[in-house]
Task: structure prediction
Amino acid sequence: MRYFVTGATGFIGQHLCQALCAAGHEVTALVRSPKKAKSLPETVTLHAGDLSLFRHADAVLPEADVVIHLAGVVSAPSPAEYEAINYDAVRDLLGCLERQSWTPRRLLFASSLAAAGPSSASVPWTEDAPLAPIEPYGDAKARAEKLVAAAPFSTTSFRPCVVFGPDDPATLTLFRAAQSGVGIRVAGEAQRISFVDVRDLVSAIQCMAEDERDGHFTYYVSHPEPIDMYDLWRGLSRAVGRKVRVVPIPKAVLYGAMRVATAASRVFPFQNQLDEKQYRQMAAPAFLCSSAALQRERAWKPVVGLDASLAHAAAGYRRSGLLRA
Result:
């Protein structure tokens, strides 16, 4: 099949393009940075441009059977940027696709568990539950899903939970903290989360892309066994080969640190790793979801457990020089 992929040079996009090319598919990637494109397989065709391309009335996209929209921003300095990248760009892409001389068989849209908001600590989210995001990132993703579900061609929105895998900048901080010997969690009942290995996520995307049904579908993507923060730090400890002391941080202290970091990021040029979005997510009781529907309807089966996933990620960080050997 022919695929057109946005966000191809990102963490998930690189792994997905490698898998699609290995399976013999034709892949065209929207790429704004030739330097980053070097991480893609040689058989990927590059289409120069960024997300602003979709706003141009005369933009011509390469014909594809399946369009996979992975591009997005997880950490941004302002709500306006979350809106521009995670909502406006989706609207623009849909409009651009409608203006093409061809119609995709299916559009896959990478949403997020954040679109649903925190779950209870005992009952995971399923697709029939209403969305209740608590911060700008999740809110933009939730509203973008509504746009996708109204498209005049078949679509699938998928909501990954925490994803572990090599070269992911979003979780690198956790591995570095574990290697330092100190981890943190919010004081009180340990937060519970769902996770998925990037290899399982890629296989899920491939399963959804091969769906020949007409209509609009939404799926959560996760490993069936949730974990809590103690499980995570123990797993990270094994992955980096160092004992980790987990320090509980009161919410009030974490909130204060967030306010200081946010104020400092407005003055000094650094990427704030503890903004209000991150605080709200850390302070929530749980982010759990069930992938039972995806397993049942698309015959998808996650096979990578927590220890194997963290070990694979750590090995990748070491190869890239991002984590000490």
Observations:
- The chain has a mean pLDDT of 94.
- The two ends are 40 Å apart (CA to CA).
